[in-house]
Amino acid sequence: MSHRKKSIDAVQLDTNMNIRPSGDQDVMWYSPLEAPFHIAGFGWLQEEGRYRRLPAHPSHHIPDAVDQLANCTSGGQIRFTADATSLLVKVKLTGPANMYHMTATGQCGFDCYLGVPGEQVYYGTTTYDHRLMAYESSLFTNKVRENRLFTLNFPLYQGVEEIWIGLDREARISPPPSYDSNQKIVVYGTSITQGGCASRPGMSYTNILSRRMNLEFLNLGFSGNGKGEPELAHILADIPNPACLILDYEANCVSTELLAKTLLEFIAIYREKHPLTPILVISRITHAKEQFHADMAQERSDRKQIQQRVVEQRREMQDDNIYFCDGSTLLGADAHECTVDGSHPTDLGFLRMADGLTPILQQIVGG
Q1: What b/e sequence results for 258-290 when a residue is b if at least 16 CB atoms lie within 10 Å of its CB, and e otherwise?
Q2: Edge to edge, what strands does the sheet with 27-30 contain?
Q3: E strands along the chain, which residues?
Q4: Of 83, 84, 50, nearest to 67 (Cα)?
Q5: Hey, what's the torsion of the CAs at 19, 205, 346, 63, to 10 degrees?
Q6: Does residue 350 contact residue 205 with C-beta atoms inside 8 Å?
Q7: Among 77, 96, 248, 314, which lies 20 to 30 A Cα-Cα from 108?
Q8: With 0-12 CB in 10 A as exposed, 13-18 as middle and 19+ as buried, what is 292?
């Protein structure tokens, strides 16, 4: 006698996984585009009012894929101080979750941290029906009314058309503490830079770094499309007050020969406007299959040497503010345990990347 197996619905079996409506009607809704809220991570927000990582009408032509990916909100943050006892968000996305190797919370969700840089602690992540393009979710509840610094991290792999912040009606809101300076750390790279495949937004390596350094980070990672185009170098050079430019695009460089060409040109273009800004070149992290495919390991080694030589050549030209980081060391001895698919880091992989980069950045930038 055969027994038909039922599909397993963990949400029904575990009540902790249920998506619960807030049920809180005593809420005031605010646009984070208005004071005293502060939004970080979007270099052209003040002029354009859009949650977008590149200008809507860039000064130089960019590939269509880069233009579309610029609408992904990776690295965006909402910061404010409030004595709220509850915090909700209403979110309208540009599309639903649709990735097979990345969680919906990482692709389309927000997460919440409490505390000042260096002391920020994770509190919660949005819960919602991942099939939808709009949702409402509670991010914070606490009966104790006291001032707290809130940081909400935007989705990594989807666009946000609208977000509203809901606080209890008695909550008093004030601006967040200032950054150490108005300078920004600009990070250009690939899907790894963009945050693939963190389980939630706060675990991308640029967001981890932002919790350790009291500066604004601009995440300009473009999935499959960080190729070192000179047009992007010109656009990045237009970003005012850079504290550091990080170049982490080897994984998408198309070919070893093209990497050698684009890296030299990219740095030269950037140096025309920013002759003294620190530049950190990072070679890519190891791929899990390298231990089985010698040609992959050799290719990575060849490309690392190219990047090292470029940095050395610039230093011979009296460019003393350029540095190299060997990305193959960042994931550690058991690097194969740190990715989703061999190349894209898990939260563990991103944490190790941030741990390796933190002292380097602190030495370069200070703080």
Answers
A1: ebbebbbebbebbbeebeebbbbbbbbbbbbeb
A2: 27-30, 160-168, 86-93, 134-141
A3: 27-30, 38-40, 77-82, 86-93, 111-114, 121-125, 134-141, 148-153, 160-168, 173-174, 184-189, 216-221, 242-248, 279-282, 322-325
A4: 50
A5: 90
A6: yes
A7: 248
A8: exposed
Q: What is the CATH architecture assignment of 23-174?
A: Sandwich (2.60)
Write down the pLDDT at residue 6: 54
How far apart (Å, rounded) are the C-alpha atoms in residues 265 and 229? 9
Q: What tokens appear for 214 in the block?
A: 């009291």
Place of tokens 């563990």: 348
- How much is the pTM? 0.93
Structure tokens at 343: 């190349």
Distance CA 29, CA 16 (A): 27
On whether the CB atoms of residues 164 and 29 are closer than 8 A, the answer is yes
Element (H, E) at 296: helix 294-316
Helix (H) or strand (E) holding 192: helix 191-194
User: How many angstroms separate the CA atoms of 71 and 292, rounded?
Assistant: 37
Domain ranges of the chain: 23-174, 184-365
Cα–chain-centroid distance for residue 292?
A: 31
What CATH number does domain 184-365 carry, 3.40.50.1390, 3.90.550.10, 3.40.50.1110, 3.30.428.10? 3.40.50.1110
pLDDT per 10-residue tile (average), the chain, 367 residues:
50 47 75 98 95 96 97 98 98 95 97 96 96 96 97 98 97 97 98 98 98 97 96 98 98 96 98 98 96 95 98 97 98 96 97 98 87
Contact 216, 40 (CB under 8 A): yes
- Dihedral sign, Cα of residue 201, residue 231, residue 263, residue 360: negative
Instruction: Decide: helix, strand or coil at residue 171.
Output: coil
Helices 256-273 and 230-237, axial angle in degrees (round to 10): 30
Query: Which two tokens mark 119?
Result: 């002391």
Residue 137, Cβ neighbours under 10 Å: how many? 21
